[in-house]
Design brief:
It is a single chain. This protein is an alpha/beta fold and 600 residues long. Among the domains are: 308 residues, ABC transporter transmembrane region fold (Up-down Bundle); 75 residues, P-loop containing nucleotide triphosphate hydrolases (Rossmann fold). Helices cover 62% and strands 12% of the residues. The protein contains 21 helices and 14 strands. It has a six-stranded mixed β-sheet with strand order 8-11-12-5-13-14. A four-stranded antiparallel β-sheet has the order 4-3-6-7, with no helix packed on it. Strands 1-2 form a two-stranded antiparallel sheet. The chain is elongated, with a radius of gyration of 36 Å. About 1% of the residues have low confidence.
């Protein structure tokens, strides 16, 4: 929790003024019973209506001043709490953005979202409540007891007995229920997890007619949650009756002792009323304090979860910019620059991408995903990567922009180890089109400009033409300004894929990676896309990951993977003669070619 309080340092003034004004409000609240005492003992006893009116006006003034102090305290506490939460949320978001895929895979997306939302909201409520009540409630409790002693010592001794009893009940129940509330939260998490799972996989559940099983599982989780909530609710429900019994017994004793002392003439009737008021104030504040402690307990638990995220450090460190500049300078002395796409791009190697003995083992994985990969790809080549499901195709291309670091060997881009590149420089060279087409809420234009902020319409339309997306974009009423819903839900799967390809092409990267990004396209559109890619500027190196042999058969090189190893590399005709895995894939898709000599 201490690590997070640093985000409150810009609100030191508010953090001091909020409890200060709350103390002032409490102080004026403690004067109210004394005013009531004067109204009874002087005004009513002497039937002095003028005095009663004046004292009532004093009470109104105390109320107005108390309200003003309360609103002021609320303003400062809210400002401090919201500002603290805002800064914390920004810092957490920035930290998450710096984490690598390895850390994100380990923690999970849903966990990160929970930390960013509900956990920070709980912390915000905790800070707000602490600033408002942490000093006020104890001040009222002890202040009321001290005021009682100023009225009558013998009667005030009842407070000395009552306050510990009330504290024992309130905090005893709280200590019992806090662990139970944690178990309720765990049960709630399971219900929410089951709900999310069902909503996410609703198509699969219906496809396999598993609705009844899922309803049964949900019912079990829901029954457990209900049982735990009822159980903790029963214990929590004891708070009000037990505290009211204690307070009413104390008031009865107070009235009994007070009546005797009034009869003797030691204290007045107004003093007894004031003592009863102080007793009621103590009860209210102790309940508030108990609720505050519950809130603080939850906030501390949430703070611990947030701190765990902050404690995560990315295993993947950014390359040093100065060292990279020196390295590229040395390389450029060895090799002259080449004019590419009308701009000067300094090439430091004949090869766009090199894998030297590359191996990859994902964190907490039991076995290697990639093992001893060696290949070299020249600038401007088109490379196909094919293999069965789980063969490591996506793992290979994820190493190029350094989404993951190779655990063995080296990955080189343009002759330089990817670990030596500053991330921004490396990823500016690579245009990635993922398996899952991701579009953002906005317009087609805004989505394309993710690739290049200052892209002109000419550049965007050129990318759309190559990606075979121009035809449906032109049919849209808004054209480039046609709205896109979150995730591109108002587009078909093929349209989404073509737009993500266009977005990468707008960037005009040196290396374009298409990770099974044409799976939703029909064969005719896929063929037109591949033809357009071949006709592009020859300087762009293209990686096409696919399970369709037709998509990669015309590539300059085809890399065949099986169980994380390269089992074949070469052109289509060579692999069809010499690579069993490639033969199996090809002939399963083109059975009519089996047994024939292929001359494509």
């Amino acid at each position: 929790m201490k690590k997070l309080l640093v985000y409150l340092k810009d609100y030191k003034k508010e953090s001091v003024l909020a409890p200060l004004f709350k103390m002032l409000e409490a102080l004026f609240e403690l004067f109210v019973p004394l005013v009531m005492q004067q109204i009874i003992d002087v005004g009513i006893a002497n039937r002095d209506k003028g005095y009663i009116v004046r004292m009532c006006l004093v009470m109104v003034v105390l109320g107005v001043i108390g309200l003003t102090c309360s609103l002021t305290a609320q303003f400062f506490s809210a400002k401090a709490a919201v500002g603290f939460a805002t800064k914390l949320r920004h810092a957490l978001f920035a930290h998450i953005q710096r984490l690598g895929y390895t850390e994100l895979d380990t923690v999970g997306t849903s966990t990160m979202i929970t930390r960013m939302t509900s956990d920070i909201n709980q912390l915000q409520s905790g800070v707000n409540m602490v600033l408002r009540l942490f000093m006020r409630s104890p001040f009222i409790v002890f202040g009321a007891m001290i005021m009682a002693f100023t009225i009558n010592v013998k009667a005030a001794l009842i407070f000395v007995v009552t306050i510990p009893l009330l504290s024992l009940v309130v905090f005893g129940i709280m200590m019992i229920t806090i662990p139970m509330f944690k178990r309720v939260q765990a049960a709630l998490d399971r219900v929410l997890g089951k709900t999310r799972e069902n909503l996410t996989g609703v198509r699969v559940i219906r496809a396999f007619a598993k609705e009844e099983e899922e309803i049964s599982e949900f019912d079990k989780s829901n029954v457990l949650l209900t049982y735990r909530q009822i159980r903790v609710g029963k214990i929590s429900a004891l708070t009000n009756p037990l505290t009211n019994v204690i307070v009413n017994l104390a008031i009865a004793v107070l009235l009994w002792v007070g009546a005797i002392q009034v009869d003797i003439g030691i204290i007045t009737q107004g003093a007894v009323v004031a003592l009863v008021n102080y007793m009621s104030q103590i009860l209210v504040e102790l309940v508030k304090l108990a609720n505050l402690i519950v809130t603080i307990t939850k906030a501390v638990a949430c703070a611990g979860r947030i701190e765990k995220v902050f404690d995560m450090t990315p295993e993947m460190q950014d390359g040093d910019a100065a060292a990279f500049a020196e390295l590229t300078h040395v390389q450029s002395q060895k090799r002259k620059g080449a004019v590419v796409k009308g701009a000067m791009r300094q090439r430091h190697s004949d090869y766009a991408v090199e894998f030297r003995g590359v191996g990859l083992t994902y964190k907490n994985a039991g076995a290697e995903s990639l093992d001893q990969l060696n290949f070299k790809i020249k600038h401007g080549e088109t490379v196909g990567i094919i293999g069965g499901t789980g063969s490591g195709k996506s793992s290979v291309i994820n190493l190029i922009p350094r989404y993951y670091d190779a655990t063995e060997g080296e990955v080189l881009v343009d002759g330089i180890n990817v670990k030596d590149y500053p991330m921004e420089v490396l990823r500016d060279k690579v245009g990635m089109v993922m398996q899952k087409a991701v579009l953002f809420k906005g317009t087609i234009r805004e989505n394309l400009q993710w690739g290049k902020k200052d892209a002109t319409e000419k550049e965007m339309y050129r990318a759309l033409d190559i990606a075979q997306a121009r035809e449906f974009v032109d049919k849209k009423e808004g054209g480039l300004d046609e709205p896109i819903t979150q995730g591109g839900k108002n587009l078909s799967g093929g349209q989404r894929q073509r737009l993500t390809i266009a977005r990468a092409l707008v960037k005009q990267p040196e290396i374009l990676v298409l990770d099974d990004s044409a799976s939703a396209l029909d064969f005719a559109t896929d063929a037109r896309l591949r033809k357009a890619l071949r006709e592009m500027d020859a300087s762009m190196t293209v990686f096409i990951v696919s399970q369709r042999a037709a998509s990669i058969m015309h590539a300059d090189q085809i890399i065949v993977l099986d169980d994380g190893k390269i089992v074949g590399i070469g052109k289509h005709e060579e692999l069809l003669r010499a690579c069993e895995v490639y033969q199996e894939i090809y002939y399963s898709q083109f059975p009519e070619k089996a047994g024939k000599v292929v001359t494509e």
